[in-house]
Amino acid sequence: MRRDRNAFNCVAPDYAKSLRNGEHEGQADAPEAKNVAKTHFATIDAVVSVDGVMITTYAMSLPTKKWTEDTRKSSVDVIQAWLQRHFAADRMPANVRVRVRHSPEDEVFRVEISETFKQTGALRSTTITVAPHRGQLVFGIRVRQLPGKDAIVPRRHVEAPPKPLLQLGVEMSRLLEVYDAERRVAPTVRIVNTADEGQALGADSLDALSRRLPIIVEYTFGKTVESSLTGALAHDLIGIAHIAHVNSPDALKAFNAYCASTMLSEQYITIVWPVPVQASILTTSQPKREQIAAMIFDASSMQPELPLQAPPRASLSRQSPPTAIAEPQVGADIATLKKTIDILQQQIEEHRFHIDQLDELLAESDEQNDALIDDIEEFESEIDTMRADNVRLRENLDAITLQKLDLEAELDRKAPGAIPRTVLDAVHKAFKECTNLIFLDSAFKTADVLQGPNPERVLNDLRKLDKVVQAWRANAFSSAGLGSYMRDEYNLDYAANISEDTAQKYAGYYTVVYDGKPVLLGAHLRRGKNQSLIRIYMHIDSANKKIVIGKVDRHGPDRTS
């Protein structure tokens, strides 16, 4: 099959010139020209117009806000050079067809590569796009498969894209400055060596709400990137996943401590999906690299396609045909007519392609709508059940509240001041009782304006924290096991640190003066939600085995603030 690079262009330059000059336009179709058109449309039907459903097997996109028109043109140049290397016209296989949408008046650049496989009758369609969208310049790749036979035979829904296509994604990631939750998208492995870096990886995994790509995490202590299982995936999964290697025991402990669970070990390969989807842990001791990649490829296929406007329409000059045609001009008339028919056929092909695209999008939308309707019906049923449960719980809560008030009144009569009425009362009472804790003035100031959280629970958490320090000083556990001891022994929801980005951006809030020096209030206890949400921010003085209470407040500022 021929390579038609102007298939998406409205009018080829040479053809447009002849039409503008009005060379024999409006002549009736000659029989030869009709045969040419018939043959051409048969070719289109064999490759483009297919029955059945195209299955997306791979999709990636690189959106960047930092771009100019020069950046867009450079992106087009990179793709055209890649196209010339792998799909040159003089080396085009018979089963391959390439169509290009590209013109000076059109800001959208798109390549459509169709491959048919004679043995199976299957079709693979690869779409490469560069286009502005919502203020960003987006580079995208989408691979679709169409099964060729209706026989019941095993077929692979997920397969790796061709290596040249992945290499194109790598080249474009180096050209375009693309970030995902403030992390550069690049074909490199993120090496995590220190405890701070482990905590930062935990923060990116759990707290980066804007992250759209999964993070594949491997424990690689004693290994190189080359000898690791996932190192090579940084190239293959460009634009659809990050790769992180936790390379020391300290970094592993800090990462798991921040995640408040054994998220990673030498036995696991962990895929941390964007929130709120739970992480996938491959528990086999020797997972295959292809197995990991297949999970990411399969997930990438669910990305929505970039919506594009139709290309600018060509304007064909309408001039009156000559009143008389000399006999010697008949051959020229037929040639001109053929060119005119080719132009019209190219426009028809273009419109058919867009119609096929719209049909696919419509089918996908219908499926999504049906699934959403099912989900809505299920949610409505669950909501009705939850409402009934809520009524019962409110009734029980009212009864318990009355009992609590009676008991508090009785206790207050017998022991005045035993029950803190405010968060500030709770902090003052803890200051008197908890001899192993150090309270800064900022703890009292923040507690004084805090309303909503349960003062008794605040006091109870501070009492537990006091017992933790007592056990720490008695060498019941090491400094590295502080967080685990809090959670295991006293069920405290402890976070060892805040994210590095948050600490830098809001240093004024999280930095206090202790013992004459500025310290970071990174460690904190978490409790409650909504109006009852509270955070107890502290500084861990490991050298002296002290815990300094810095602030008792609601959730401190972060990237979601």
Explained architecture:
A hairpin with a 2-residue loop joins strand 6 and strand 7. Helix 5 packs parallel to helix 7. The radius of gyration is 33 Å and the shape is elongated. The strands form five sheets. The protein has a five-stranded antiparallel sheet. It has 561 residues and is an alpha+beta fold. The N terminus is likely disordered. It has 15 helices and 19 strands. The chain folds into four domains: 176 residues, no CATH class; 122 residues, Glutaredoxin (3-Layer(aba) Sandwich), CATH 3.40.30.10; 65 residues; 131 residues, no CATH class. The two termini are 57 Å apart.
The counted number of beta strands is 19
- Low-confidence region ranges: 1-51, 315-328
Structural class: alpha+beta
How much of the sequence lies in strands comes to 15-25%
Shape: elongated
Query: How many domains, in number, for the residues?
Result: 4
Q: Termini, distance in Å?
A: 57 Å
- The radius of gyration over CA amounts to 33 Å
With strands numbered from the N-terminus, the spatial order across the biggest sheet is: 1-5-4-3-2
Quaternary organisation: single chain
Helix content percent band = 40-55%
Mean pLDDT: 81
Tell me about the biggest sheet? 5 strands, antiparallel
What is the count of helical runs? Answer: 15
